[in-house]
Structures are given as C-alpha cells and as structure tokens.
Amino acid sequence: MDDVAAKTAATPDTVTTPRPPVRDHSTAIVWTLCAAAFMAMLDVFVVNVAFTKIGETYHGSTLADLSWVLNGYAIVYAALLIPAGRFSDRFGRKAGFMAGLTVFTVASLLCAVAPTLWALILFRVIQAIGAATLTPASLGLLLTVLPAARVPGAVKIWATTSSFAAAVGPVVGGALVEASWRWVFLINLPVGIVAGIAAMRLVPNLRQEIKTRIPDLIGVALLIIAIGALSLGLVKSSDWSWGSAATLGSLLVAVVGLILFVVRMLRHSDPVISPALFTVPTFVWANVTVLLFCIAFGAWFLSIVLWLENAAGFNTIQTGLGIVPGPILVPVFAIVSQRLIKRMPVGMVVALGNAIFAIGTILVIAGAATPVHYASQVLPGWALSGVGIGLALPSMIATAAAGLPPSQSATGSAVVNTARQLGYVLGVAILVAILGSLSVTGDRLVSAFQHGWWFIFVAAAISVVTAFGITPRASKIS
C-alpha cells in the first residue's frame, strides 16, 4: 500500500503546480497616489496665474470678490484636512481617497463651466473639500499599503510633489490661460480619471481589524471653526487690516475654538486627534518645524513672483520660467537627502536644508537693487533655496508621518499637512502686510522687499534649531 501511495503521489495528475509570483504594484501605487496629490497642489499655483483673466470674464467683479476664488479654497482646505483624515482612518483610506478624488475632479469640471463668479467660488469650495479628503488619505495609504522598506522613499516622493507643482504650475498656467482660463480646471479631468481607474485596480482596500466609533462630531465642528476662522483672518488681513474688528474677531474665534477643541480632545473617549500623538517627540517637533519652514517657504515663493513682476518687469510667461530653476531642484536634492540620511541623523539633514534655504534668502537680500539683473541677483539665491527645500521639506514630512502607528496614519498626516497649509497662509499674510500696496518704486520698493526677506530668513533660521528635534525615537502609541 505504501508503494502504491508513493506512486500515486508521483503521478503528473497529483503534482502541485507552483503559483505564479504575485506582481508587486508598489511603484504604480506610489505614482497613482502622488499624481492625485500633485493635481490638487498644481491647481493652487495654476489658478494664481489665471486670476487676472478670470476677473476679465466676470465683468463688474471687485478685487475683494475675486479674492474668494483663492481664499475660499485655502480656508476650506486647511479647515477640513484633519477631520477628513480622521474619517478616512475610521471608514477606510481607499474609500476616502476615491471620494475625495471624485469630488475634486467633478468640481473641476463645474469650475470650468461656471456661469458666474459666485458659482465659480462655490465650485472652488467643493474642490477644496475633495482636495482635503484625498490629501491625507493618499499619504495614509502610502504608509499602510506599501512594504515597510518602500515607505520612506514613497513619502518623500509624495512630499516633493507640491514643490514640483510650484515649478510647473506657473508655466503650465501661463500657457493654458493664453487659450482660456477655463483650461486651468479642465486639465484636472484626465489626471483625475486616470488616477481614479488606477487606484481602483491597484490600491488594496485594507480595513481596520478593530472598528472604532464615529469620532467626536462636536470636536470636528470646533476644529473646523477654529482653523477656518484662523485662515479667514490671515488671508483677509491685508484687506481688512490687522487691527480691524473683522480680523481681530476672526482670530478671537480661532483662539476660543482651539481652546474648546483641546478641552474636548482631552476629555472625549474618541477624539478627532488622539492626545497620544503629541506624546511622540518626533511628531511634535516635525509639526513645529513644518509650520515654521512653510511660513518661510510660502512667503518666499510669493515674494520672488512679486519681485520679478513688479521690480524686474517680467510678464506672466517670463515670471513662470524665472520660477522654474528653484523648484526643479527640489526632487533632485530630495534624492540626495535620502542618501545623506543613511549617514547622518534625519534632524541634522533637515537642519542643513533649512540653513541652506536661509542662506539663499541672504544672497537675494544682498543683491537686491533696481534695475533687476535676474541671472546675478535672483537666480543664485533662488536656486540655493530650492536645494534647501529638497533636502528639508520631504524629509521632515516623511519623518513625522512614518513614525505613526497604522491606525493613526491618515489623521497624523492630516495634522502635518494642516501645519504646512497654515504655514503657507500665515507666511503670505505676513509678507503682504510687510510689502504694503507695492505702489512705491526705486529704493523704497527694494527696502520693502528686503524687510519681507528678512522676515523669511528669521523664520527659516528658527526652523534650523527646531529641526534637531525630529530624529525618530521609539513610538509608544498604538
């Protein structure tokens, strides 16, 4: 019997055919998720270029009304990032990503066909809801669906997309606007459709083993009110003035809302943000550093655009081309930073990048004069700042997000991105207040920009110090 069994086992009919190896879709997943995040960021920079043409279409619109095309998006995007991230952690990151991508893409089409200015503003708000949903979900997916060895590099690619969007945005926007500003929104349709199809096919739908309750809805409302009021006060401060009742009232609402939110967070059994996140030193210091650095970065980008347009006399296309050299260096030096981190603590690499960025601002300050000679006065410092951004920004975001447990990945990444977005808004608001109306010329114009650049230098210099706190330590939260 044993011989028969042995022969039977050896027959071809009973030989087990090895399964073909499962294909690794990690690279395709990374580029799919990053493409969607890139699209959301590109829209910000492209719409900035289209602002004047939009005003020409809707005759009789005031500058204050037109500003809501930009401000409505910025305020809603910043306010909803954390709640959207929390709900993605609760109900599924892939579902959150697909919902956000769908809303953003459909809203882009609606923006392109908007019959009135206020319809466009409404559709921009809907766009922001989609962007705020897909952004933390995309980063949360990178942290949870990829092999552990691929996560750090993938997060850096994701973090670099915003800088690359800044590089190509003005150029792409300038070219599209020549045909029609509506193409600025239509360009999102093919990207959204392709990314959506790819995500449905390639991104696994991982579910939490332990279902948690719906997060604190009162806390969600308080957080939206606090961040929305803060963003509103900051973006409108140049129109209302810093000492106006409207600005001070908005900031007061933000402070009170934030205090109530913190009380709620500490007492509720299922808060929007787990207090345990803030017991991780890496996470705390990374957020502080991201906020400071993005204050500098947001103000720096706008200041160079305004300098080229107002002092150098560049047109839209020339300004777009003049902006390219700085951001285009970011992905290159993001790769360099990944190699440096193998030899140096990540906090030291980020501090080095922040310091190089600060040195770039000093070079521009030192060479500021009219008439402007772009190649000698602007390009060296602008390019050096791109080197610093490439070394610093992707690494600090990757470090903050990668140190979080899977159950908190989308929420934690949303906190980091909220710090980044608020940094941009705060930096722009302070820069605009420093520069004033830009109606002056000659030495007074140079002096105004130098004061703005000194502010940027100080913010960057402080971020050099805080960067040393972001070297990862063991996390104890779960």
Question: How would you summarize the topology of this molecule?
Answer:
Blueprint: H1 2-10, H2 26-57, H3 63-91, H4 93-112, H5 117-145, H6 151-179, H7 183-186, H8 188-202, H9 217-235, H10 237-240, H11 245-267, H12 281-310, H13 316-323, H14 325-341, H15 346-367, H16 374-402, H17 409-435, H18 442-467
Helix pairs in contact: 2-3, 2-5, 2-6, 2-8, 3-4, 3-5, 3-9, 3-17, 4-5, 4-8, 5-6, 5-17, 6-13, 6-14, 6-16, 9-11, 12-13, 12-16, 12-17, 12-18, 14-16, 15-16, 15-18, 16-17, 17-18
How would you sum up this structure in a few lines?
The chain is an all-alpha fold. It has helices spanning 2-10, 26-57, 63-91, 93-112, 117-145, 151-179, 183-186, 188-202, 217-235, 237-240, 245-267, 281-310, 316-323, 325-341, 346-367, 374-402, 409-435, 442-467. The chain has 18 helices and no strands.
H and E order: HHHHHHHHHHHHHHHHHH
| Number of structural domains | 3
* N- and C-termini, Cα separation: 56 Å
Beta-strand percent range: under 5%
By CATH, the architecture of the largest domain is named Up-down Bundle
**Which residue ranges are poorly predicted, with pLDDT under 50 across at least 5 consecutive positions?**
4-22
Coarse shape: globular
Number of helices: 18
CATH C-level category of the largest domain: Mainly Alpha
The Cα radius of gyration reads 24 Å
CATH superfamily of the largest domain: MFS general substrate transporter like domains
Description:
- It is a single chain.
- The protein has helices at about 1-10, 25-55, 65-90, 95-110, 115-145, 150-180, 185, 190-200, 215-235, 235-240, 245-265, 280-310, 315-325, 325-340, 345-365, 375-400, 410-435, 440-465.
- The chain has about 475 residues and is mainly alpha-helical.
- α3 runs parallel beside α5, α12 (about 280-310) runs antiparallel to α16 (about 375-400) and α17 (about 410-435) packs antiparallel against α18.
- Helices cover about 80% and strands about 0% of the residues.
- It folds into three domains: about 25-205, Growth Hormone, Chain: A (Up-down Bundle); about 215-270; about 275-478, MFS general substrate transporter like domains (Growth Hormone, Chain: A, Up-down Bundle).
- The protein is globular and about 60 Å long.
